[in-house]
Every structure is written in C-alpha cells, then in structure tokens.
Amino acid sequence: MTGLAVDDAAWASAWRSRSPGDKALLSLGLVLCALLLPVWPGSVLVGLTAVALALGPARVPARTFGRAVRLPLAFVAVGALTSVVQLGGGPGWAPDAAQRAGALVGHALAGGAAVLLLATTTPMSDLLPALRRLRVPAAVVEVASVTYRLLFVLLESLHTIREAQTARMGHSTVRRSFRSSGVLAAAVLTRSWDRARRLQDGLAGRGMVDGLRVLPEVLPSSRRFLAATVTGLTAIVVVSLTVGGAAG
Asked: Cβ(224)–Cβ(25) under 8 Å?
C-alpha cells in the first residue's frame, strides 16, 4: 500500500501486467473522442466505456474510482457555471446557457473518466519509463518523478503530525480544529521542504547529477488488446457521427 488510493488501485488492477503503451493508446483515443465528437452520443459513449472498462475488466474498485472523480467534478461544475454567466449588457444567463453548460460538462467528464482509466490501471513506475522511450525530454520526466516521490513525503508528514494533534486533543472543538489545521498546513510544508532539500543534498553528495536510472520492467504489447482498442474507438466514432447526424 502506497497511501495513494489511485496508485494502490493501479498496482492491484487486473491490467497491471498490460503494456503501458497499450493502455495509453486506449486512454488517449478515448480522450480525443471525448473532445472531438458531439456530446450526444459521443461523450456519453466515451464516459460509459471508460467507467465500464475500469470497473469491469480492469477490476478497479468502484469506491476508489468514484472518489477520484469528485475533485475534477467540482472544477467542472465551477467551470460550467462561469461559462454560462453573461456580463455584457448586464449580468444574467447566456441565451444558450443550458446547451453550453451541458457540452462543457459532457466533454470534461468523459475526458476525465478516460484519463482516470489510465491512472487507476497504470502505476507511475510504469509510466515514467514509457515516457523516456517516447523521447519525452529528460527534464520533464525527472520533474514528474521527483514530484511523485515528494507526494509520499508529504503524506507521511501529514499523517504523523495529524496523529500527534489528535493525541493532544487538537481537534476536540471547532476552534481547536481550525487552529490545528493551520498549524498542520504550515508544519507539513516546512517539514516536506526540509526533507526534500536534505534528499537533494544527499544525492548531490553522491555525485547524482543526472536522473536516477533503473532497470524498468518490460511489459509486452498485446495485439488482441490493440485490435480491440481500435475496433472499439472506431465503433464509438461511427455511432456518434451516425446518431449525431440523424439528430441534426
């Protein structure tokens, strides 16, 4: 267990042994379909497909997938609200507010579900070597790797300080909870920054000036999976254009 629910789900996923390139192709194809196809039925089909694959063949826990959707859903709701407010000529709703908000929510939720399909089935330790093989700049991959490692430093500090505050009745009342939350945020940030600095100094002292090279696990690509991916994406495009054209 890593402490991150999405990462834990990726390690326990039934698709863990599949090639990250195959899963990336599927997720990228679904994202493109969500962005380029009409909301009805394109985005609906993409969202349903991503959720069905995650909860079905990939065996991602429904609770984990649902919790991962909550925060993006909040941002989508705020974005949809701001997109339908018209300020010119006096505040009010835009004439096509419902259509505009529906399109934004549909595209965003479908694309988000497709990205979560990749995140909940592919650990970061598989994605980073795949990015290197795709010739992504080394600096970008290294920043992603360091950020990923620092997440666990942050979580460990948060858990330790939170336990200490609870043992001292720091959350027994609302007033104490507000005060403890402020102290917690400040302590976690400073402690994480200090640990990150000491980690950097230690690596520099050992002559670590380039990225950390490890022997990645090679996961073979599946022709059947790729064929099913192309077939499924083609079916989504055909159905979306057919139904969308008939509705128009």
From this structure: no
